[in-house]
Amino acid sequence: MVLLVSIATWYIFSDNYFSFFEGAALLFGFVVFIGGLIFVSLRAKNQDDPFVSEACDEVPDNVPTKKAVFWLVVGMILLPVSSHFLVGSAVDIAKYFGLSDLVIGLTIIAIGTSLPELAASIAGVLKNEDDLALGNIVGSNIFNILAVLPLAGLINPSVIDASVANRDVIIMIGATLALIAMSLNFRGQRRINRLEGGLLIVAFMIYQGYIFSQVG
User: Fold this and answer.
1) Which CATH number fits domain 2-213: 1.20.1420, 1.10.3470, 1.20.1080, 3.30.70?
2) Which of 85, 160, 174, 183 has the highest count of CB atoms within 10 angstroms of its CB?
3) DSSP string of the chain, one letter each residue
4) Could you tell me which residues are beta bridge partners of residue 158?
5) Ranges 56-65, 87-96, 150-159, most confident
């Protein structure tokens, strides 16, 4: 699924313009995706899901509902506030160093907004929940492309830097293919080993270095 939406994004950006209707199409894809998940969940509601059962067992029984709701509200308030300061600070840094909005978005903002996902993935791996770590990344990418990205086209249709389709989205598709290949692992073990994980990190560092090397 994440590969399909990545290819769709490349096709939409290939004309270097993100229109209102293209944003609406991606958002419609998100609605279809959520509907499909609900449909699958309803069909399997009578079947025991070991992952769900294990997750439910890990939920503390002594946490009052009011306390849980309180921290949920606090988190929902702090998230947009922290995002506001992150974006504002990143823009100031970009102006100071003469960086473009695209570069700052592909680097500082991309890394900063991914830190919660990184923490969740590390926590999942430490608990031997490899599927949770992988699902977190895949689900986040699908959500960002189908639910977050469309808002830019719906609110402010605009011209897109040609390098987004010709470079960045292509790299995203390549990284997705690499992740799929590593996850399937044709040797029979469906897991990403340390070497493969290290290669992905090195590839990301090379990509970030390349972006900064193109500045100015």
Assistant:
1) 1.20.1420
2) 160
3) -HHHHHHHHHHHHTTSEE-HHHHHHHHHHHHHHHHHHHHHHHHTTTS--HHHHHHHHHS-TT--HHHHHHHHHHHHHHHHHHHHHHHHHHHHHHHHHT--HHHHIIIIIHHHHHHHHHHHHHHHHHTT-HHHHHHHHHHHHHHIIIIIHHHHHHH--EE--HHIIIIIHHHHHHHHHHHHHHHH-TTS--S--HHHHHHHHHHHHHHHHHHHHT--
4) 18
5) 150-159
CA-to-CA distance for 207 and 213, rounded, in angstroms?
10
How far apart CA 167 and CA 158 sit, in angstroms, is: 19
62, 48 contact by CB (below 8 A): no
Q: Would you say the C-alpha torsion 98, 113, 1, 159 has a positive or negative sign?
A: negative
**Rounded Cα gap, residues 204 and 173, in angstroms:** 13
Structure tokens at 12: 């939409």
Q: Which of 162, 212, 142, 208 is nearest to 10 (CA)?
A: 162
- pLDDT at 178 exceeding the cut of 70: yes
Residues 185-214 have pLDDT tens digits of 665 566 777 888 888 889 888 888 888 777
Provide the residue type at 102 as one letter.
L
